[in-house]
Design brief:
CATH topology of the largest domain: FAD/NAD(P)-binding domain
CATH class of the largest domain: Alpha Beta
Structural class: alpha/beta
Largest sheet: 7 strands, mixed
Distance between the termini: 42 Å
CATH superfamily of the largest domain: FAD/NAD(P)-binding domain
Oligomer: single chain
Strand content: 25-35%
Radius of gyration: 23 Å
């Protein structure tokens, strides 16, 4: 005999199937580490992988500074993802459209429906600001990089151009010089925005600076071979032969998703957290590049994710008791 369930029962069952102890928004190294730890704590866990922004790690062709691993960023992410799945975390490849708190639970609204959680971990990362010039996207991983500490090793003994004038750009230029690159810095203005101490170190190392200039195009065949530069004062174009272009014009944290929750952010858009990765909203934690971590590396993002998961575990345990 066929049993016909009414709409209320069906809706309630679907709701129960979409309920988790912890939901993690983001599937980069911070989010996946949080998923591994959360699942191992015995919490029902789901992590959401969104299309944009993609994890910056997935764009990194080679990883050599993550303990115990060498390979591409994509390979490392896949290993982390499979480990999280092995421990029971669920993977949702859905764009999260809205987060809100209703009746003591968090609602995660996606393109496919609504999920519910006792605790949220935000690990949406950040997106390196792009120049938006021809050749930039085409040569990512083939001479164009947004991470000097990740990729600088491959350009030892070669000519590279660092684009930017802030602390990150100057620090990248100094680092690349230290490891043996032939470095030039280009900045759109006639003075740098970096801290005075960093500027002094840059100039003490005789790193040349191309002032009042911007990159118009990045060119090459199979890899980067040259950049076309425009002097904003004289309006003259010139060509600089280089093997690599390191773009350091800022990072835009992907944190707009937390606005409806009332999560505090700083003036740059980074989520404010304490040493336990707790936000100002009870039950909401954040990890990785969406927070103002001074060293934006895979290993530090993983550390953030582990701490956030531990804090979420303590919170959920308290809620259940």
């Amino acid at each position: 005999m066929e049993v016909v369930l009414d709409a209320d029962v069906i809706e309630r069952r679907e709701s129960e199937e979409r309920e988790y102890d912890v939901i993690i928004v983001g599937a980069g190294p911070a989010g996946l580490t949080a998923a591994i730890y959360s699942a191992r704590y015995g919490l029902s866990t789901a992590f959401f992988e969104t299309v944009d922004p993609a994890s910056q790690l997935s764009l990194t062709p080679v990883i050599e500074n993550f303990p115990g691993f060498e390979g591409s960023g994509f390979e490392l992410l896949e290993k982390m993802k499979n480990q999280a799945l092995k421990f029971g975390a669920e993977h949702k490849f859905e764009n999260v459209e809205k987060l809100r708190k209703v009746n003591g639970k968090f609602e995660v609204v996606t393109e496919s429906g609504t999920y519910y959680a006792r605790a949220l971990i935000i690990a949406t990362g950040g997106k390196h600001r792009e120049l938006g010039v021809p050749g930039e996207k085409e040569f990512v991983g083939r001479g164009v990089s947004y991470c000097a500490t990740c990729d600088g090793h491959f350009f030892r003994g070669k000519k590279v151009l660092v684009v930017g004038g802030g602390n990150t750009a100057v620090t990248d230029a100094i680092y690349l010089k230290e490891i043996g690159c032939d470095v030039t810095l280009i900045h759109r203005r006639d003075e740098l925005r970096a801290e005075k101490a960093l500027q002094e170190e840059l100039f003490s190392r005789n790193i040349p600076v191309i002032w009042n200039s911007v990159v118009l195009r990045i060119e090459g065949e199979e890899k980067v071979e040259r950049v076309v530069i425009l002097n904003r004062v004289t309006n003259e174009e010139s060509v600089l032969e280089v093997d690599g272009v390191f773009i350091a014009v800022g990072i835009r944290p992907a944190t707009d998703i937390v606005m409806d929750l009332g999560v505090e952010r700083d003036s740059a858009g980074y989520i404010r957290v304490d040493k336990k990765q707790r936000t100002n909203v009870e039950g909401v934690f954040a990890a990785g590049d969406c927070c103002d971590n001074p060293l934006k590396q895979v290993v530090t993002a993983c550390g953030d994710g582990a701490v956030a998961a531990n804090s979420a575990f303590e919170y959920v345990k308290m809620m259940k008791s």
